[in-house]
Amino acid sequence: MGFLAIANGYIQRFCLSLAITEMVVPHDREDHDADDMVDLSSCPYQSVNSSITDAIIHTSTQFDWSERTQGVILSAVFWGYVLTQLPGGLLAERLGGKHVLGVGLLVSTLGTLLTPEVANLGPYWLVAVRFCIGLGQGVMYPSLNVMLAQWAPPQERGRLGAAIFAGAQIGNVVSMAVGGLLMRYTEGGWVNVFYVFGAIGLVWLALWEILCYSEPESHPFISDEEKQFLMTQSVGQLKRRKDLPPTPWRYIFTSVPLWGLIIAQIGHDWGLFTIITDLPKYMKSVMHFSIAQNGILSAAPYLAMWIFAVICGGLVDFLVSRKIPITTVRKIFISIAASGPAFGILAATYSGCDKVLVSMFFTIGMGLMGAFVPSLKVNALDLSPNYAGTLMALVGGIGAISGIITPYLVGLLTPNSTLLEWRLVFWIAVIVLVSTNVVYLLVGSAEVQEWNDPLALEDGRKPSIIPRKPSHQEKFSPNGLESGAVAT
After folding, report:
1. CA dihedral 180, 13, 274, 183 (to 10 degrees)
2. Is the distance from CB of 72 to CB of 408 less than 8 angstroms?
3. pLDDT tens digits for range 331-351
4. Which terminal residue of the chain, N or C, has fewer Cβ atoms less than 10 Å from its own Cβ?
């Protein structure tokens, strides 16, 4: 259900990226001097007949929005997304993640369903709805991190984190591939994208309320054996919510490893959101793919990313079980997640108009970014299990500022949507990805920080991440651990 929560969130957040290519009337290139209008790198259409054959059935509504206006619309979701990260994490730590996440995705789902009607009112109304969708989705990662702290034992954190957070990649696959097919083959065209994906969100919400619980001790369906294991392994590391000390803001904001993680997240989000938000526009305006081709080929990188994320999840846990320092493991996989897409993006943009090579390099490069799921996405949980929601909110919230900047920047840098203009966009993404990764290699860490137990820190005692002893029923010895021991 956590996997499906992330998948639904990404579908609702990014389905507009593809739909907007069919909602907006294509613009002629801006007027320049004759010499400036010649783009020797431009890609030709294959044929007039193919473009006619690929014509889609769509509503009569067509919007005359400039590239800059489209950039504002696409970035609006991140304005709200940034604002609710920290409140969402704090609420989830105090109230539990179930209801915080449920309410957030309810807001996102309703906004998705309203999008077609609101778009007819004007671009600024659509900006407002996208802002509200972002407000709802801002609580998603912090809430799930709080729940992972309860449900994921340390020795299984890589696999479980990968299984849940890889929902983002499947969400992108469904958003692009299914969205393209809906617009190509259904009467009504792009409006069906929002109605179908909104309805799926309502089904998830109903199942979430019935099946899921914030912590193992309140769950009525799991076995006693599983409950005992979780109470000893994962919950045993945590303060109970009622006993959780006030958030140690001073220590958090002065934590060098945390700032290293935040900077790495900024770089990751810059590269990811540049591709998620604007790859469909690049495929249509530069490579001249049809809408059905666009959807499928824009989905391929995220399918590869999901497969690689699942593989990396098991590999991370294997390396940790072999006593390789967890910080070293995290740095290796975060570096793969930064250097892989940097190579793929550059190779794609210098492949000219070769559609096969462009698609292949985007797929390989973004596929390697899947290594971030069992590394970057669980690193906040490494640093502080007790305050995982707050840390994830800070990391995700500050990182998501990239999502505000990149769509608007693309709109400014690509007024004519030429290959040379897009090459500059991709070079900027590569520089950001590589430079932020270097910072993380220097200062990043995956060790539990002392301020995870602020009371012990202030008392001058050695901080402990095991604030209470397990009860008699909780004394369970999985995987050869001594009774009551906690794997770290």
Report:
1. 10
2. yes
3. 999 999 999 999 999 998 898
4. C
Which secondary structure element, helix H or strand E, spans residue 148, and what is its range? Answer: helix 140-151
CA quadruple 120, 124, 126, 132: dihedral positive or negative? Answer: negative
Is the C-alpha dihedral spanning 171, 332, 265, 425 positive or negative? negative
Query: Which residue type sits at 125?
Result: W
d(CA 27, CA 38): 17
pLDDT at 475 exceeding the cut of 80: no
Which pair of tokens denotes residue 275? 């591709």
pLDDT given at position 240: 62
Q: Token pair 């077609």 is at which residue?
A: 116
> What gap in Å lies between CA 280 and CA 275, rounded to an integer?
8
Closest by CA to 417, choosing from 278, 219, 309, is 278
3-state secondary structure 190-224: CHHHHHHHHHHHHHHHHHHHHHCCCCHHHCCCCCH
What pLDDT digit, counting tens, does each position of 142-197 carry?
899 888 888 888 777 777 887 888 888 889 888 888 888 888 888 878 999 999 99
Q: How far is CA 241 from CA 201, 238, 317, in A?
A: 29, 9, 28
For residue 46, the model assigns a pLDDT of 54
What are the angstrom distances between the C-alpha of 157 and each of 144, 168, 204? 13, 17, 24
> In degrees, to the nearest 5, what angle opens at C-alpha 255 toward C-alphas 313 and 394?
65
Question: How many other β-carbons are positioned within 10 Å of the β-carbon of residue 475?
Answer: 15
Q: Is 239 left (phi over 0), alpha (psi -120 to 50) or beta?
A: beta
